[in-house]
TrEMBL record:
Name this polypeptide is given: Potassium-transporting ATPase KdpC subunit
InterPro entries tied to this protein: KdpC
UniProt main location, coarse: membrane
Sorted UniProt keywords: ATP-binding, Cell membrane, Ion transport, Membrane, Nucleotide-binding, Potassium, Potassium transport, Transmembrane, Transmembrane helix, Transport
The encoding gene: kdpC
Localisation per UniProt entry: Cell membrane
Family: Belongs to the KdpC family.
Superkingdom per UniProt: Bacteria
Assembly and binders: The system is composed of three essential subunits: KdpA, KdpB and KdpC.
Length: 208
């Protein structure tokens, strides 16, 4: 009797184990292979530019070819020349390093962060010829990723005069370029208006 019970229990355990293994294989194929492949196919067909990294050519045009790209519309670059709009600061590695994406992890009351912000504010005010009180927050603070490609219209506005002078353009022309590369709130209510620094600088290079 005991032997029959043990054999029955083993048969039940084996049956349940095989059923669990089959379910594991099915879900592995569905969620680990079929679904990712389906989403990749949809992305390549419906959104090829976004699916391939939102790459941008030197003339500002979108491309899906890495060999033609000078950057991604989703990743900031360290523009420093007077003829360029500058991005916000970065705490990612040596700056804008996609392999070291992240913030400084310093709290808003950390004395080192407060001192750094004050130094940046004074330097920014001197560079752009504005009052320190007029320097926007995103001009002196890094984003959480350290890779934010956008700046606020306010930060762009204080850079217009410098860029216009360096390029020999009128302030009105540079302001127009900024306006053309300013995106509004998502769906009209999400986020804040923003200026893509890479696309703006490439447009100015192409036009100048």
């Amino acid at each position: 009797m005991a032997t029959t019970t043990v054999a029955s229990d083993l048969a039940t355990l084996t049956r349940h184990s095989l059923a669990g293994l089959r379910m594991l294989l099915v879900f592995t194929l569905v969620t680990g292979l079929a679904y990712p492949l389906a989403m990749t196919a949809v992305g390549q067909v419906a959104f090829p530019w976004q699916a391939n990294g939102s790459l941008v050519r030197s003339d500002g045009a979108h491309t899906t070819e890495r060999s033609d790209a000078v950057g991604s519309a989703l990743v900031a670059q360290g523009f420093t020349g007077p003829e360029y709009f500058h991005p916000r600061p970065s705490a990612a590695g040596d700056g804008y390093d996609t392999l070291a994406s992240g913030g400084s992890n310093l709290g808003p009351l950390n004395p080192d962060l407060v001192a750094t912000i004050e130094e940046r504010k004074d330097a920014m005010a001197a560079l752009e010829g504005v009052d320190p009180a007029d320097v926007p927050a995103d001009a002196v603070t890094a984003s959480g990723s350290g890779l934010d490609p956008h700046i606020s219209p306010a930060y762009a506005a204080i850079q217009v005069a410098r860029v216009a002078e360096a390029r020999g353009l009128s302030v009105a022309d540079v302001e127009q370029a900024v306006a053309e590369h300013t995106a509004g709130r998502g769906l009209g209510v999400l986020g804040d208006p923003r200026v893509n620094v890479l696309e703006l600088n490439l447009a100015l290079d192409d036009a100048n």
